[in-house]
Design brief:
The chain has two helices and five strands. Strand 2 and strand 3 (about 30-35) form a beta hairpin. The protein has a single domain (about 1-80), classed as Alpha-Beta Plaits, CATH 3.30.70. The strands form two sheets. A three-stranded antiparallel β-sheet has the order 3-2-5, with helices on one face. A two-stranded antiparallel sheet has the order 1-4. By secondary structure, it is of the alpha+beta class. The chain binds FE3-S4 cluster.
């Protein structure tokens, strides 16, 4: 699976969600999460994220390892998101 990590938090650009062919992104308050059983590792979302928040689980930086579990639990609790919206980050 792929994992959304800390750079998404407080940004939530949502460019990633529109390119996902399996609609596996779920929206939390501060960031989005990938459902590990729905993600097909197509990598379409990876280059779309302006803050490089999305990693394959095997390439997840050490300090963000906890996001693997976080994506799994939060994606179960949150609503699916498939359309772009205003980001939290103001740039
Ligand atoms: Fe977050 Fe990047 Fe998507 S900031 S919402 S992972 S485009």
């Amino acid at each position: 699976t792929h994992v959304v990590a800390e750079p998404c938090s407080g940004c939530k650009y949502t460019d990633c969600v529109v390119v996902c062919p399996v609609e596996c992104f779920y929206e939390g308050e501060q960031m989005v999460y990938i459902h590990p059983e729905e993600c097909i590792d197509c990598e379409a979302c990876v280059p779309e994220c302006p803050v490089e928040a999305i990693f394959h689980e095997d390439n997840l930086p050490e300090e963000w390892k906890s996001y693997l579990e976080l994506n799994a639990t939060k994606s179960e609790e949150c609503e699916v998101i498939t359309e772009k919206k205003e980001p939290l980050a103001d740039d």
